[in-house]
Amino acid sequence: MTTYRAPVTDMQFLLRNVFKAEELFATMPGTSEVSDDLIDAIIEEAAKLIEGLIAPINQTGDRQGCRFENGVVTTPEGFKEAFAAWSAGGWAGLTGSVEFGGQGMPKVLSALIEEMAFGANPSFALYTILTTGATLALSQHGSEALKQRFLPKLYAGTWSGTMCLTEPQAGTDLGMINSKAVPNADGRYNVTGTKIFITAGEHDLTENIIHFVLAKLPDAPAGPHGISLFLVPKLLVDESANLTGQKNNVTCGSIEHKMGIKASATCVMNFEDSQGFLVGEPNNGLVTMFTMMNYERLSMGLQGNGLAESSYQIASDYARERLQGRAPTGPQLAEKAADPIIVHPDVRRMLLTMRANIVAGRALSLYAAFQLDIARFHQDAAARNQADQLVALLIPVQKAYCTDRGFESCVLGQQVLGGHGYIAEWGLEQNVRDVRIAQIYEGANGIQALDLMGRKTVRNKGELLDVLVAEMDEFIKSQQSVAAMQPYLKIFAEGKQRLVDTTNAVIKSATDQPDEIGAASYAYMELLGLTLYCFMWQRILAAALVALDAGTGDRSYLESLVKTGEFFLYRLMPRSKSLVEEIAAGAAPLMAMSAEQF
Ligand SMILES: Cc1cc2nc3c(=O)[nH]c(=O)nc-3n(C[C@H](O)[C@H](O)[C@H](O)COP(=O)(O)OP(=O)(O)OC[C@H]3O[C@@H](n4cnc5c(N)ncnc54)[C@H](O)[C@@H]3O)c2cc1C
Predict the structure, then answer these.
(1) Sign of dihedral through CA atoms 290, 435, 344, 319?
(2) Do 431 and 551 belong together in one domain?
(3) How far is ligand 1, taken at its centre, from the CA of residue 440, in Å?
(4) Among 117, 148, 465, 574, which is least packed by CB within 10 angstroms?
(5) Does residue 132 sit in the same domain as residue 185?
């Protein structure tokens, strides 16, 4: 049976050859010491921990799940030890501010490590991701005193974090939350309310849990502009960051029984006059949260990629071993009763679809992570601004498209194994269940598509897309003299033009017809996702051709990249044409039926 192997070769190729990470990091003051050698050392160290300690408790974690008894949540066997090793290795504070005990590393690095963790054990990864998100909100919006008190122990993994947004009546529409925060004379707040579906709301991995809770102040305006963000510890903490020994009226009411990620505790959390601290400005909680949401959404795309990679490893190993039928061109293993199923074109279709989307999804995630790093570390305000614009455009697509492709890959992997893919033993059945949630949480994919189409495209008349298109054009120009790239560039340039024309058409039709935005949004997100994957493949193909010409690197690996890239261009990219037709059909066929007719 296949056990998870961190895709270190792919990751190193993307960082060194495609994105030239060392060169970029050398230009920014906070990252100038991040060399290729340091990156290799960090990735290899993380891979060792993830393969050796975290992957082996994935299946057992799924079988055992979390246990809930009298308000106490117990994680499955091995989780405590693995989390302790994770914390001891300094992984919890990898990207954290150095000033408070973090290691100040760029997001690009942690993105790769997150992908590995999600691929090896998504439930475990979630305990770590939520803490990273919480530290981000605090380090960017918290007061100095709050940072001093809470960040070092969150970075050390002694405490963990949560994001408490959802309530029974308020999911996507957070303007409808009921949780309240009443100010005290001492500048603190009493927070009261019930939150549902809270990942890692209660568990036994850390000595304290620091909740980031959305609630409304008494005089708050109605709707999304009346929400504030509060830091609410499970156990009270004094000013020197020591536990006072007092509880804070934060209790777990129950845990959910769900389809997948069974070792991740999804909790109902009750806050009853719990002591809280305001983070950021009053009534600005959603904006404050958005800082961490860009990072959290990137992580969800990485969950999709990670589990797709794990599924690909299982399926490609299996397809080389499983003997069924004969190759259409004649027996390949004449001495055996049948050929391995990898000889069949349809099995290759499934494996290549997986691989082509995984590599492009990983590259797109890194591209977005680089923009987050430029926005954080670059000295030049114009470069930071451009990176911010790209982040705004890329994150909803990366989240939705990578998670959709991730789910598709897990299902394709299951199909490659036939009936064995449906059986628990092989792991694909668990991957299908575990990856599914990534399309739903952190804003359902339909909402990501709406954000992309409405706020990020129509509202600013395509201004953000112009920034991306300028990057694409610059790349195309840089390759004009490379003969081998010309057939690839032709497909890319046509796809890019289809995207630009479709964007202009939607902006025009949406001006006086409000339903057109929602009607176009999902197919538009897919069109942009597909075009971005095509852009990533152009960059990968260009880098692979350079390495092949120079005779550097593993030839067979580089050739496999070229063949996978060609599969993407000739077999997957044509879908952009049907997406354009789908978008052009507009809202009328969607809105024609009355609610009763459904
Ligand atoms: C396992 C798990 C873990 C979670 N972890 C957390 C957590 O840690 N913290 C937290 O706060 N929450 C968490 N959530 C909640 C999660 O983020 C929400 O479930 C999600 O945001 C969707 O909200 P909802 O379930 O209320 O669906 P709804 O908002 O009711 O949406 C239902 C459907 O309607 C669509 N829809 C809604 N509004 C619109 C619109 N305006 N236009 C078009 N379509 C629309 C949605 O896309 C969706 O398909 C978790 C959920 C699960 C299942």
Answers:
(1) positive
(2) no
(3) 6
(4) 574
(5) yes
